[in-house]
Amino acid sequence: MACFKNDKGDSILHLPAALGHHKLMESIISECPFFLLEPNWKDQIPLHVAARAGCLAVVKTLVTSIAYFSARLLSEEDRERFNVYVLKDTDGDTPLHAALKGRHLETALCLVDANNHGSFLENNDGISPLYMAVEAGGLALVKAMLNGLGTNVQFQIF
């Protein structure tokens, strides 16, 4: 596997994901879909680096590919248990945190539309993507994150 990674552990899929090389990334995924879940030295999968770069087309392709291969390779129970949208890197960032750190609101909205479970997870600094979206002034994004909460939210009074 070493020949497919650089010195920082980025796979041959991390690089086009970070640089926005959409067609190259699609080609690699079609031949080697296992790279979708391959972490680098910071425990980032290609979805993290694409989200940080803010390339919406690349993130959409990764989201579609992850859904496609998950549906074919994992049982429904395993898909619920293994949620790539809540995978954290060494900084505790999910792909949604990564998108919002770069203020890529459209990319963040794409991730929330795919799965909003990561909207409320704190990173190592104790900051959630919801807080970051509010800070960025992303009204549509905040609405998407809060959509469906209804009365399921439990409030704590301190």
TrEMBL record:
Pfam families membership: Ank (PF00023), Ank_2 (PF12796)
SUPFAM superfamilies: Ankyrin repeat
InterPro entries: Ankyrin_rpt (IPR002110), Ankyrin_rpt-contain_sf (IPR036770)
Gene3D superfamilies in alphabetical order: Ankyrin repeat-containing domain (1.25.40.20)
Name by which UniProt lists this protein: Uncharacterized protein
